[in-house]
Amino acid sequence: MPHRFTIGRNEQGAVEVGFILRVLSDGTQVVGSVQDVPLVPECMQRLCAKVAAFVENSSYPVYDRKALLANRKLVLATHG
What we know:
Elements lengths: L1 E8 L5 E9 L5 E5 L8 H16 L16 E5 L2
Antiparallel strand pairs: 1-2, 1-4, 2-3
């Protein structure tokens, strides 16, 4: 079963890989963590944490939905 996770920023402004919690009136999306979501397998939770750390440490910006700028928008992964 494929899993699709969004790369964005959480409510504190840190890089997050998870699910879109909401889209603000200005078009900014807020991404929530999958770390405590029971339906997301542990291996996918670890993947999201590793991708978030990689993106945070890279020189490329997180996708900006409002400005339509950046290189990374989502992660699609399967397991099993």
